[in-house]
Amino acid sequence: MAELTEKNINKGLTILENFKDSKLLTNLNSCVHCGLCAESCVYYLTFKEPYFVPAKKVDLISSIYKRYFTFIGKYVPFLANTKEINDETAKEMVDLFFGACTMCGRCNLHCSIGIDIAYLVRTGRMMLAQMNLIPASIQSTVDSSIKTGNNMGITTEEFVDTIKWLEDELQDEMNDKHARIPLNDSNVNILYTLNPREPKFFPLSISAMAKIFYAAKESWTISTKMYDVTNYGFFTGNVDEATVISKRLYEEVINLDAKELILAECGHGSRAFRWEAPNYLKKEFDFDSNTSVELIAEYIKTGRIKVDKTKLKLRVTLHDPCNLVRNGGILKEQRYILDQVVSEFVEMTPHGIDNYCCGGGGGQLAMSEYNERRMKIGERKAEQIRNTNAKIVVTPCHNCVDQLMQLNSFYKLNVQIKTLAEIVADAIIID
Amino acid sequence: MSWFILISKISFALCFAFCIYTLFRIISLGKPKDYAKTKGDINSSIKYSYTGGMSPVKKESAYLHLPTYIAGILYHLGTFLSLILFFLNVLGINLTNYLIIPIAVFLIISGICGVSILIKRIFKSELNSLSNVDDYISNVIVNVFQFVTIYYLFYLTPTYFVISAVLFLYLPIGKLKHAIYFFAARFHLGFFYGKRGVWPPQN
Fold first, then answer.
1. What is this model's ipTM?
2. Chain A interface, mutation test: which of B137, B182, B203, most A Cβ atoms within 10 Å?
């Protein structure tokens, strides 16, 4: 962590100083410290300590704001327990904003006032970014993206090899030498993105999506230059870096003249591009960005792919990724798909926009220093899964897949974790 | 005009001016300039944010904490009622005797609710850890205001106007200003979820 200097503090404070609209001002002034948000947070539910109450995070950033920018903070600071930024406060900011929040936004829904607590946490992270206090672990992920074009540092040669191997597999499986996983085709309907975890660790999910595109006879491509759907700049709060990453993907859609961008099964990635990138780049995009979940649902609805729900006999449950569902409004599509491709589906309790975070959100998987906390807060999700008696957990998010796999092993759940594309690919009927 | 009535009126005028200024500031800063393509219905979502989204069956902060939730609702209703009574006093409108007793009973109940919230704040570790001096002062001022309003329903006392003045002067300083920001927070939450098609719920 960098040294805290007066200059850095002032840079951090600029985040609280320049209101772009009334949202920040409103949220900084609204908390009444009722503490009723506590039971909506997986951290508090796990540790039962006042430190983890979401309002504590609101209080931390509000108390800094009040200290520097309000009458009460300047002249009667004891009244609202306002805080100066010093080493102790900075340490608390890093721990609370990075290490004790997945920015899942569950507390927002249940806050008695309606404060966007996750937004304030993100604002806190933006302050820390300005102060050069982003944890090195998560920053290295962003650095890798900026330097290599993907967050895992996969070389183009390695990536192309993997795709070519998967293409051979697809041709064998489809018994069609013309089956392709197109790279860098221009003037296509769809530019498809990937989470770099796929070529690195889960190539079968690329195969699954390729099979779906093949069955749908889609005109699509993957860019070797910019295929990474993730944007950890969104998590670190470094808007400049988040903008660079978003801009690359935006420009690749334009370069390849694709009609539509399809965002892979990645909660934060799809959120970062669909909802945040237009604001990073300060323009409304002239192409549509949709998720693969919406696309697959559309394929099934319109009959472009045919599926057989009797192929899979095992009980299936669904984990709703926070960024896709609570923060992205994708709720019905994945349920429609599962209704079409599995014979027995059971919901978790709670689910949908009320679902609990798996514990891997907010960049937690990239910050090994918080691994112990992450696995502990995941216990609630493990219990949710166990209570369904399902044998397969489907989730349309690679971050969630990673966390759920670790929970599966740690809490001995004995389930399979699959993406939506994988489960659909298994049910596809090829004419 | 007595000095105590005068100071309460001046305090109210200052408080009112602050509220107007705050409201003007919120409105002039405007709603988020969001370039992302809208997926849902923002207006319906904002409407839902002020209605269904606040329903006790939808919020854990309500249904997991029913006694606190009910106490909070009654406490706030008692505060609004006390403010209305203050305005009526200022306007020289007297209440009929039929209304005084039920109003007094309601204010006693709401006042007790306020005290119970204060006690909870003092003794519950999660709340205590969150609380600052402003939280306690705000709670006490509003409670005293409600109790002195009850007294004033039966006996004229300068204390009523002095306490009212304290309340009006304190509102712009401390957390009581959530009376204005609350509505803006609901707007923003509705805007955010409406833009993304999360609210109104899809069910």
1. 0.95
2. B182
